[in-house]
C-alpha cells in the first residue's frame, strides 16, 4: 500500500493543533500504561495498522509485556487486566463504536466506580483523540516510518 499524502505537510497548521491536543492528553494524569492500552484497542477496532504498530511499540518501550499486548484484542477472556483496565476497554469500545448505541447509563455508572468524573472526561478525550488519529492514518494510508523501507 502506498501512502496517499503526507497530512503533516499538507495541513501543517491544523496538524500542529492535533499534536498539541495529543500531547495534552499524554500529560493529563491518566496512567501512561492505560493510555497505551486504550490506544491499542481503539486502533485494533478501527483497523489502523500504523497506530497498532506504534502503540504496541511504545507500550513495550514503557515496560508493557508482550503477552498483555497480544491479549488486548481478547481482553474480555483474559485475566491479565485489572478491573480499571477492563473498564477502560469497555469505555473505549463504546466510545469508538458510538453509533452502535452510544454509552449506556449502566456503563456510565460502572465507569464512575473505577474513574472519577474528571478521569472519565480525560479518558473520553483520549479515546476521541486516538479515533481521530486512526481516521487520519487509515484515510491517507499512513505507513509507519519503520515499515516504509519494507514497503518501498
Plain-language structure description:
The chain is mostly helical and 152 residues long. It is 70% helix and 0% strand. It has nine helices and no strands. Helix 2 runs antiparallel to helix 8, helix 3 runs parallel beside helix 6 and helix 3 packs across helix 8. The longest helix is centred in the C-terminal third of the chain and has 23 residues.
The general outline is: globular
What Rg do the Cα atoms give? 16 Å
Runs in which pLDDT lies below 50 for 5 or more consecutive residues are none
**Major sheet:** none
Specify the number of helices: 9
Helix content: over 70%
**How much beta, percentage-wise?**
under 5%
**Class computed from helices, strands and strand pairing:** mainly alpha
Give the mean pLDDT. 95
Task: Give the ordered list of helices and strands.
Answer: HHHHHHHHH
State the total count of DSSP E strands.
0
Q: How far from one another are the termini? A: 9 Å
Question: In summary, what is this structure?
Answer:
The protein is globular, with a radius of gyration of 16 Å. It is 70% helix and 0% strand. The chain is mostly helical.
Relevant terms:
single chain, 152 residues, mainly alpha, globular
Indicate the topology.
Layout: H1 7-10, H2 12-26, H3 32-46, H4 49-61, H5 66-71, H6 83-96, H7 105-114, H8 117-139, H9 145-151
Amino acid at each position: 500500500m502506498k501512502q496517499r499524502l503526507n497530512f503533516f505537510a499538507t495541513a501543517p497548521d491544523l496538524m500542529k493543533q492535533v499534536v498539541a491536543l495529543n500531547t495534552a492528553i499524554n500529560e493529563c494524569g491518566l496512567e501512561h500504561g492505560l493510555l497505551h492500552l486504550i490506544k491499542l484497542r481503539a486502533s485494533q477496532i478501527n483497523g489502523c495498522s500504523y497506530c497498532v504498530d506504534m502503540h504496541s511499540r511504545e507500550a513495550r518501550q514503557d515496560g508493557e509485556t508482550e503477552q498483555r499486548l497480544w491479549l488486548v484484542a481478547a481482553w474480555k477472556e483474559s485475566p491479565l487486566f485489572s478491573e480499571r483496565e477492563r473498564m477502560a476497554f469497555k469505555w473505549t469500545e463504546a466510545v469508538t463504536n458510538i453509533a452502535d448505541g452510544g454509552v449506556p447509563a449502566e456503563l456510565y455508572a460502572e465507569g464512575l466506580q473505577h474513574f472519577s468524573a474528571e478521569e472519565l472526561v480525560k479518558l473520553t478525550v483520549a479515546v476521541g483523540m486516538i479515533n481521530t488519529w486512526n481516521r487520519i492514518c487509515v484515510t491517507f494510508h499512513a505507513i509507519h516510518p519503520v515499515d516504509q523501507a519494507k514497503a518501498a
